Amino acid sequence: MQVALFQPDIPQNTGTILRLCACLDVAAHIIEPAGFPVSDRHFRRAGMDYLDRVTIMRHDSWSKFEQWRSEKGYRLILFTTTSPGSYLDYRYGADDILLFGRESAGVPDEVVAAVDARVVIPIKPGLRSLNVAVAAAMALGEALRQTSSAS
């Protein structure tokens, strides 16, 4: 199981997600450009000393990430607010990559067209979305539960 962040723009969320990945022994991917430098103090503070304990792969662009992914043969599962299918009903595989979009804009149409599946975390009607770090924790927890990959 792996987590990918498409052009993240809030350093605290990215640091929190990388800390989550470190604790659950899950590789993380950052698809550039990110909206902050890795030296950002908010990013470092949220990730704490866990940033040295997570496998992070940085990809210069969406196209480079897609090239890498297609060579490896991994499925890509997009978590989005615009999917009719619940993340709880999806059947994950141990080699899946869970993709989360920018906090401010999600992902562009070309990314949506390239994914293998789109799922949503259902929330109360009238509310926009969950914090991306909370969504990543929920998604990763369910995917690991299904695949029995959790330590």
UniProtKB/TrEMBL annotation:
What reaction does this catalyse? Answer: cytidine(34) in tRNA + S-adenosyl-L-methionine = 2'-O-methylcytidine(34) in tRNA + S-adenosyl-L-homocysteine + H(+); 5-carboxymethylaminomethyluridine(34) in tRNA(Leu) + S-adenosyl-L-methionine = 5-carboxymethylaminomethyl-2'-O-methyluridine(34) in tRNA(Leu) + S-adenosyl-L-homocysteine + H(+)
Mind listing the UniProt keywords for this protein, alphabetically? Cytoplasm, Methyltransferase, S-adenosyl-L-methionine, Transferase, tRNA processing
InterPro entries per record: Alpha/beta_knot_MTases (IPR029028), SpoU_MeTrfase (IPR001537), TrmL (IPR016914), tRNA_m1G_MTases_N (IPR029026)
Q: Where is the tRNA/rRNA methyltransferase SpoU type domain?
A: 2-140
Q: Which GO cellular component terms, listed alphabetically, does the Swiss-Prot or TrEMBL entry include?
A: cytoplasm
The Enzyme Commission number assigned here is 2.1.1.207
Binding of S-adenosyl-L-methionine, residues: 101, 121, 129
Name the source's superkingdom.
Bacteria
Q: Name one GO biological process term.
A: wobble position ribose methylation
Q: Where in the cell is it found?
A: Cytoplasm
Q: Name one GO molecular function term.
A: RNA binding
Record PANTHER family: TRNA (CYTIDINE(34)-2'-O)-METHYLTRANSFERASE (PTHR42971)
What HAMAP family does the annotation carry?
Answer: tRNA_methyltr_TrmL
- Subunit-structure text: Homodimer.
Q: Which family does it belong to?
A: Belongs to the class IV-like SAM-binding methyltransferase superfamily. RNA methyltransferase TrmH family. TrmL subfamily.
- Function as written in the Swiss-Prot or TrEMBL entry: Methylates the ribose at the nucleotide 34 wobble position in the two leucyl isoacceptors tRNA(Leu)(CmAA) and tRNA(Leu)(cmnm5UmAA). Catalyzes the methyl transfer from S-adenosyl-L-methionine to the 2'-OH of the wobble nucleotide.
Annotated protein name in UniProt: tRNA (cytidine(34)-2'-O)-methyltransferase
Q: Which organism is it from?
A: Bradyrhizobium sediminis
Protein encoded by which gene: trmL
